[in-house]
Structure formats: structure tokens, C-alpha cells
Write a structure and sequence with these properties.
88 residues, disordered C terminus, DNA binding, DNA-binding
Length: 88
């Protein structure tokens, strides 16, 4: 899904949407230290606060391109904290 000019080491600006509300958070998508993919910037911290995320909570993540802007986007659905199930 990446375009030739998109560089994960430098970072790609993305919009992350919470599902099903659809609120957008501007972030950077990066590949850190050759080990892991991450979403960064203070907006990630705000996303965690807004949704009271905890380390054991499962999420479902979708990656897509916005049809109007062709920008890379994510949608994140939050699972239940208690049973780890996916949000619907």
C-alpha cells in the first residue's frame, strides 16, 4: 500500500480514526530501529487518553487510503478491556 516516495524510516503522515466515532487524529507512521512499526506524536498520547487504553487491551486496526486525498489512514476499533474481544 505504500507509494514509492513514502519512507517509513523518516515517517509518513497519517490520519488515525477511532471506530465507530470517526474522530481523526494526525500522527506519524514509522518503522523504528528496524524492529517495529509505530504511530507517534503527541496525538497518539491524546488518542490513548481519549479512549482510556491500557496495555492489555486488544484493538483491531485497518489500514486504507483516503479516496479523496490518497493519504494513508488507519481506523482503530477498541476491544473490551475485560474480555479482550473486538469492538463491533
Amino acid at each position: 500500500m505504500l507509494k514509492e516516495e513514502e519512507n517509513l524510516v523518516k515517517g509518513i503522515p497519517v490520519t488515525v480514526y477511532d471506530h465507530p466515532q470517526g474522530k481523526g487524529y494526525e500522527m506519524m507512521f514509522k518503522f523504528w530501529s528496524g524492529k517495529m512499526y509505530v504511530l507517534t506524536t503527541p496525538r497518539w498520547n491524546q488518542f490513548k487518553i481519549d479512549h482510556a487504553l491500557i496495555p492489555s487491551q486488544q484493538v483491531t486496526v485497518w489500514l486504507f487510503r483516503n479516496l479523496k486525498t490518497d493519504n494513508l489512514c488507519f481506523a482503530i476499533a477498541l476491544g473490551s478491556v475485560h474480555d479482550g474481544s473486538r469492538a463491533h
